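Give me the fold.
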Amino acid sequence: MYKYKQVKGGRPAYDPIMMLKILFLQVLYNLSDEQMEFQLLDRRSFQEFIGVCEYDLIPDARNIWIFKERLREEKLDKINYYIKKNKFIVRSGFIIDASIVEVPVQHNSKEENDQLQKGIIPEKWKQKPSITF
């Protein structure tokens, strides 16, 4: 599918299997090339999936883009053919950074709500400080 170009000098090409794994992660999590580079540097699980450790060279956004362009040039739609032929289902997902934040709960009585609507501060509230440290 992918031919190494044997050129004297320069850095050797990245393993094509590793690059395909990167593309699968990129499609699965709907990431741009720059975000894929960041996630590869940041997430140990991504590094393990593509078969590198944190001290190995990890492809940057430009290398990922170049690999995708080479695949397009070679018209390698065979990947999609083999995925469908082997009855795999490609689904995409998203990385979400969720934070749980406590929200103050308001337990006002009906009388307190009526007073608040009239613009009056309930007497109980005047006795307790509104901010505690």
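The mean pLDDT is 80.
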